[in-house]
Write a structure and sequence with these properties.
With 259 residues, the chain is of the alpha/beta class. The chain has a single domain (9-258), classed as Acetylglutamate kinase-like (Carbamate kinase, 3-Layer(aba) Sandwich). The chain has ten helices and ten strands. The chain has helices at residues 16-19, 28-43, 55-62, 72-96, 108-112, 114-129, 152-162, 199-204, 216-229, 244-249, and strands spanning 9-14, 47-52, 101-106, 133-138, 167-172, 177-178, 190-191, 193-194, 233-238, 256-258. The strands form two sheets. An eight-stranded mixed sheet has the order 3-4-2-1-5-9-10-8, with helices on both faces. It has a two-stranded antiparallel ribbon with strand order 6-7. Helix 3 (55-62) crosses helix 4 (72-96) and helix 7 runs parallel beside helix 9. The chain is globular.
Length: 259
């Protein structure tokens, strides 16, 4: 059963498909609404952490490429260029709402290494104490396959674990979890609540249908499982209208809830 009125610490992950238009350029209107909602929740006394993709998408346009980069060095260059640009856009919007923010870039090493893990937890908790909204991403510029988390769904679940979040919200380009991928099956049925991620549920999750997305529902289920292991609830919902986050917290049946 959903009971989200009392949640205090919320991790919100936003995917590239939510942050950008189909042409790959940033959807500033949506980003601004998201920033306003997160700042407002913070004002209301919640602790908020944002996990944001989008750096490579911003970077390749600045590089003047007419397509997303394919090679690793090109992708890492695009991330190096795009990450500060994306942060600057967030910062400008957050400043408008008098909300401070900070950047945290992680790799899998930080999750695996006990010392680094503890440092990251302490930093995140200090930021939350100072009422700062941390904006987290994988450190794409230096990451290699060996130390890559690989997708921000999983990364956001690790963050939820670190801060003992009450709720993980995965904003995406679809209303939630269906019993098969609606991009391939027009008869797919919406599932509003998953009490346990069974093998059957896992078999319903497909990959991303878009060029922009990465993990599809597979990585979102992995994230929900990691979150569940520490008692964090997960909502997968459409990021089209970030104001719906208020409705979710008020108990409206929006998105798919994972207990
Ligand atoms: P994001 O960039 O927001 O992480 P993704 O493209 O990675 O988005 O994931 C969302 C996509 O997952 C949906 O648009 C859909 O094409 C795909 N998908 C695969 N299986 C399912 C499913 N069972 N229910 C809903 N969407 C699914």
């Amino acid at each position: 059963m959903r009971n989200l009125k009392e949640v205090e610490t919320i991790v919100v992950k936003v995917g590239t498909s939510t942050l950008t238009y189909e042409n790959g350029r940033l959807n500033l209107r949506r980003i601004e609404i998201l920033v306003r909602v997160l700042s407002d929740l913070q004002n209301a006394g919640k602790h908020v952490i944002l996990v944001s993709s989008g750096a490579i998408g911003v970077g390749w346009q600045v590089m003047g490429l007419d397509h997303r980069p394919n090679t690793v060095p090109e992708k890492q260059a695009a991330a190096a260029i795009g990450q500060p640009q994306l942060m600057s856009i967030y910062e400008n919007f957050f400043r408008k709402y008098n909300q401070k923010n900070a950047q945290i870039l992680l790799t899998h090493m930080v999750i695996d290494d006990p010392q680094m893990h503890e440092n990251a937890i302490n930093t995140l908790s200090a930021l939350l104490d100072y009422k700062v909204i941390p904006i987290v991403n994988e450190n794409d510029t230096v990451v290699t396959d060996e130390i890559r988390v690989g997708d921000n769904d999983t990364l956001s679940a690790y963050i939820a674990q670190m801060v003992k979040a009450d709720l993980l919200i995965l904003l995406t380009d679809i209303d939630g979890f269906y019993n098969s991928n609606p991009s391939c099956n027009p008869d797919a049925k919406f599932i509003s609540e998953v009490m346990k991620i069974t093998k059957e549920i896992e078999s319903m999750a497909g990959d991303s249908a878009s060029d922009l997305g990465t993990g599809g529902m597979r990585t979102k289920l992995i994230a929900a499982k990691i979150a569940h292991s520490v008692g964090t609830k997960t909502i997968i919902m459409n990021g089209e209208s970030p104001e719906n986050i208020y409705r979710v917290l008020e108990g409206d049946i929006i998105g798919t809830y994972f207990d």
